[in-house]
User: What shape does this take?
Amino acid sequence: MATATKKANTAKSNNKKTLSNQPVKRANKATVKDNNAKVIVKPEMTVGDGDLDHRTKQKTAKAIEPKQPKKTVKKSEKTVAAEAKNYSGLDAQTLVRLYRTMYMSRRIDDKEIQLKGQNKIFFQISGAGHEAMLVGAGLAMKPAYDWFFPYYRDRALLLQLGMTAQEMLYSAVGAEIDPNSHGRQMPSHWGHKDLNVPSQSSCTGTQALHAVGAAEASYRASMLTTELQDKIVGFKGDEVVYMSVGDGTTSEGEIWEALNTACNLKLPVIFVVEDNGYAISTPVEVSTAGGDISKLVSGFPNLYIQKCDGTNPLESYDTFKRAVEFCRERKGAAFVHAKVVRPYSHSLSDDEKLYRPVEELERDAAIDPIKTYAEFLMTEGIASSEDLEKLRKTVDAEVTEAADIALVTPQPAPESALRNVFSPDVDPTSKDFDTEEGAELSGNAGTMVDLINRCLHEEMERDERIVIFGEDVADVSREEYLETVKGKGGVFKVTANLQRKFGSARVFNSPLAEANIIGRAVGMAIRNLKPVVEIQFFDYIFPAFHQIRNEVAVTRWRSDGDTKCPLVMRVPVGGYLKGGAVYHSQSGTTLFAHTPGLMIVYPSNALDANGLLRTAIRCDDPVLFLEHKHLYRQVYNKSQYPSPEFLIPFGKAKVVREGTDVTIVTYGALVQRSFEAAKRLEKQGILVELIDLRTLVPYDWERVAESVKKTNRVIVAHEDPISYGYGAEIAARIADELFEFLDAPVRRVGATDTFVAYAPQVEDFILPQIEDVEKAATDLIRY
Ligand SMILES: Cc1ncc(C[n+]2csc(CCOP(=O)(O)OP(=O)(O)O)c2C)c(N)n1
Ligand SMILES: [Mg+2]
Assistant: This one.
């Protein structure tokens, strides 16, 4: 007990020490508390309440042009930014422009709400209550220079950066010319190529890792050659990366994985938490231990933590200026925790009155930044009520006009749906990727591990954009040991000696966090690095499944080609290991094959692995490259080495053996097993045509069809569990398109619908064996 207390105390004081080392600025608690405590009787008017006919009626004043601040005007105690004596160094025009942007943001929300009510648009989520913080952030950063990974509340930021009301309303109506997603995503899912805003998804928090990867692209390029820097999209050397989330989203693991890496590498990422106190209906104290996210992150080293009143644009601007400076100077990452309000429901699909009492809503309304900042401008004599009224009128007119135009702007043609699933420019199934015919081989025969490793060496040599990372892939992270130890180079040694050859900036270990690996790779790929990452075992790919399915595979499509993240995910897969058991033997290609936008490669031998990996690296789409662990070192699939230009195209199956009686369509470890079965069957006079698909997405349908037309009997064999498997897809298509050529039903061979057991004889029962393939063939012949 005593020891425990002692430990706790030490931890506490250590924490304190770390904190005091950080340039932490505490929030102006008094202001926030005071404001929260103020109970305002039903506000006179509600700005942006969804009804365009409601207008803010401010007190009258005369001037039309923004006035220079009158130093003589008596300041109200309640002045929003009374402490900002020189208005954060901003002139009157800028101060008024900030209001214009905030108001514009609110009015676009209101317009959308109106249009949604009229069934003219199909979804709405607002940025209401967050505007002040967002214009402050936008003003402190450099548009089209810095990088932005914003979330759906960030309308005012995007306006501040230069996106127009028109562009936003194109998005709302699903117009094809919408720069955010060209009609593919809900509105407020930001993306703007020219403004360095990569396409953002609906997934809360995934973009934190992309932001880290985007910052890391610059960080790694800084350590490498200037030629590489030229290839990094938007490389400046001092650019910073903005990433925002809500309070609720800070509970996602990816946020913590992102903070961990950003702080560890001192990456220039500004983590922004827009704390409106709710995640839909769940209050912050339910999601966040202690209710204060800044406290929870206070142990991270190199993290500049700032709290601010996000309803105050000037305080927000000051805060962001400091955070930006910290990151620009490459001192580390920054964390801005901004308290904001949410005057509207979460989205139009939500009714906040179901879980928030009127008094609370009124408290928020009283500190609504659209209201308080207008009051500030008037009280300080920066703009008169008439100025602001006039400004509001012009904004309203602009928004109305933009909406009218958007409503008559065409949506994409229905068949455009098929565009940009994969790269329209680089086709890995084309002849450009085929040097297989007559390829010259040399040297001693190597294993699949050897030939993959050789390919990685050659490709890294050829393309300096390639970075390799994952768990334990480096030779030795502590470089000082490089000369004294042999090095690890991956648990299967596939990446051996790459760090030694190409350096730790290009080959490095990741933390033990699969989403971290894939999410960072996305951010790097967005900026034109070429990540070739390793997931240590297929069985552990699932923490990254969200990133793979919802980000990697869909980024190009959801932005209609504006954002892409081509990368290669090498993944050891499969069983037949004797003792691999449940969590080191899994196959599950269907889970990924069912995800549009992902290419899947599954080589059965060393030479194919080499040629297909080269194509995977050189193509412009994300590729899941499955390497069967059992095949890694088999003598039967060894090969001599091809040249560094040896390429096998995707979608080109290999006829391993020709035959006339029955076709076996397979891949991976079942190729050799089927080959053995074919030899046995030949002795019975049955001639098998054996097809190794080699790539599962895309696959060589022509070759399959040609064979089935010849043999009229077909088996689809794979290692995955049989039900709902990849074979079901092939079998269904054969039944559908080749029915008249069949003399027997399509038969499938696969694993039992279980996981793989440890005890060898049970494993043998579960996984398909030579006998299973043989029996299926004899059954079909007898049919
Ligand atoms: C991974 C994921 N889980 C759940 C959702 C559904 N969802 C969308 S927004 C949201 C709440 C987010 O709250 P917060 O992060 O506080 O942001 P706020 O909307 O309050 O600004 C939820 C649960 C989602 N989009 N993504
Ligand atoms: Mg929230």
